[in-house]
Design goal:
heterodimer; A: 100 residues; mainly alpha; 2 domains; 2 helices; B: 283 residues; 10 helices; 0% strand
């Protein structure tokens, strides 16, 4: 008669432990995936073969160059905008006091 | 037990699916967002400025037709509006100081000269406003307004100087944060970066010159030299633009060379692999 609640408690305890372990597994899988991703992005990885390393580094530089080119286009546009702003301001009449 | 394992597997799958965009998303690495011309302060106050033009015409007409007291009232109203729109523009510029173009600039101190200029201009405009409200005649109000506009030159010199200072600072930041490190990396790969370095140095020096010019304008808004200073800032920005454009052209050349080199390596790798797997034929 008395063993029934004890068994019940043990059962729920093992459930908790089981779920905690489950969460640990999920976390481990996720951490492993993230680690793999960042590891792939690391160009200094010495475990990769030389040709893969060179190729990865070159690809990274190509990506950076491509991003820089995008930025340079945007900066060019911004400078054009600034030049137009100077022209517009110098030609503006709001600060003209000749007819006051 | 088996059912619980399946549930865990499903949860793991869901978590990974939900988290994958976060983990695998490519960072934009601060790619610059292009701003449009509608961002200019002038564009923001377009309606007010048009209304001011009408007000100006009405005021000019009143000068020849209205009696002294009515003219004084009209002049004071017009002058107040002129001062207020300048105060509004300064407030807008102050607000923009915390925006993307200005607040993140680290290469040069843009905040101090801009804040100092805005504070001084605001004081001048507020002082003029007090005098205009207290003016006994239309002539006094008119003289005060004229003096305030000529002293502050918010539209002609201050607007382009604030905007240009922030923009030049932002571009300098970009050079320091992206292009300089890129040159270092290219050098590590034995790429000849002579042209890149030359163009970048030239862009930097032009931008620094423009920044100095803008600071001079901000420190003395009423100077008769400001028109020439802004014209020279324009030439400096143009020079910076040319240098950055040359930098971009050279970068594209290098990118092509790197790609060609990469393809060559891949082909050689492929050939080596296929030749090593083929049986050697005796002649």
């Amino acid at each position: 008669m008395d063993t029934e609640p004890v068994l019940q408690e043990e059962k729920s305890m093992s459930k908790v432990v089981f779920w905690l372990l489950g969460l640990l597994v999920v976390g481990a899988i996720f951490a492993a995936a993230a680690f793999m991703y960042y590891r792939n992005g690391d160009t200094d990885n010495s475990n990769d073969s030389v040709s893969t390393e060179q190729s990865t580094t070159k690809n990274d530089i190509n990506t950076e160059i491509s991003q820089s080119e995008t930025d340079l286009t945007a900066l060019g546009n911004e400078l054009d905008q600034e030049l137009a702003e100077i022209d517009e301001s110098l030609a503006s009449t709001e600060d003209d006091t000749s007819d006051l | 037990m088996k059912r619980a394992l399946i549930i865990i597997a499903v949860i793991a799958l869901i978590v990974m699916l939900l988290a994958s965009p976060l983990v695998f998303a490519q960072e934009s690495q601060g790619t610059i967002k292009t701003t449009t011309t509608s961002d200019s302060v002038r564009a923001k106050f377009k309606t007010d400025l048009e209304a001011m033009k009408l007000e100006r015409s009405a005021y000019k007409e009143a000068r020849s037709t209205e009696r002294a007291e009515a003219l004084k009232t009209r002049t004071v109203t017009y002058a107040e509006k002129q001062i207020n729109i300048r105060l509004k523009v300064l407030t807008e510029q102050e607000r923009r100081l915390s925006g993307a173009n200005c607040s993140k600039v680290t290469s040069v101190d843009v905040k101090t000269p801009i804040t100092a200029a805005i504070t001084a201009l605001r004081n001048d405009l507020n002082a003029a406003l007090v005098k205009i409200k207290a003016a006994g005649t239309a002539e006094v109000a008119r003289t005060e307004l004229k003096s305030a506009i000529e002293k502050t030159r918010v539209f002609m010199y201050i607007n382009p100087a604030i905007s240009g200072l922030c923009r030049a600072g932002k571009i300098l930041d970009k050079i320091n944060d992206r292009f300089d490190p890129l040159i270092v990396k290219l050098k590590e790969k034995q790429v000849d970066t002579t042209v890149l370095e030359k163009e970048l140095a030239s862009a930097e020096s032009s931008l620094m010159a423009a920044i100095d010019t803008y600071k001079k304008v901000l420190s003395n808004p009423s100077s008769t030299n400001n028109k020439d200073l802004l014209t020279s800032a324009k030439a400096q920005l143009k020079a910076a633009r040319t240098s950055l454009s040359n930098f971009k052209t050279e970068l594209a050349k290098i990118a092509d060379e790197l790609k060609a080199d990469n393809n060559l390596r891949s082909n050689q790798q492929g050939e080596t692999n296929s030749s090593s797997s083929e049986p050697v034929q005796d002649n």
